Amino acid sequence: MIKVGDTLPATTLMEYSEVEGEGCSIGPNAVDVAKASAGKTIALFALPGAFTPTCSAKHVPGYVQHFDDLKAAGVDEIWCVSVNDAFVMGAWARDQKTGSKVRMLADGSADFAKATGLTLDLTGRGMGLRSNRYSMLVKDGKVASLNVEAPGKFEVSNAETLLSQAKG
């Protein structure tokens, strides 16, 4: 499993972007994790799936709500990573009104989740291999802090925890 001090895995995530509102899409576009994180401080959080109850009701809204606070604490970008395709992540971004506050990044084949060692097998629930719920503060591509949730919990990967770590 990835740990504090490790470099983010050299993988590619996908991002769906729109031209104007509900207009034609640009992409999905490939996001090279190493290039996109170089020289930046990133509040990255991952979760089992788009449109799932805890993820939609608490996880994403917390990061949208604390966007200004995270920026003030030195965070350049906020990334939400989930094992979904880029089109689902784009639709979820519209639903959650993330705008330019949170980059909704798709890990469609779970390559990033597997490379971090933070997978969650939800095959028994019809969802296949997913990402565990966690957050990490990333500085110049390296993990500065890591908060992995226990199964079924939402206690340490929230925006407030990562904000306190960014301020510290």
From TrEMBL:
Keywords: Antioxidant, Oxidoreductase, Peroxidase, Redox-active center. Residues 2-168 form the Thioredoxin domain. It catalyses: a hydroperoxide + 2 glutathione = an alcohol + glutathione disulfide + H2O. Its EC number is 1.11.1.27. InterPro entries: PRX5-like, Redoxin, Thioredoxin-like_sf, Thioredoxin_domain. PROSITE patterns: THIOREDOXIN_2. It comes from the Bacteria. CDD domains: PRX5_like (cd03013). Thiol-specific peroxidase that catalyzes the reduction of hydrogen peroxide and organic hydroperoxides to water and alcohols, respectively. Plays a role in cell protection against oxidative stress by detoxifying peroxides. Belongs to the peroxiredoxin family. Prx5 subfamily. This is Glutathione-dependent peroxiredoxin. It comes from Variovorax robiniae.
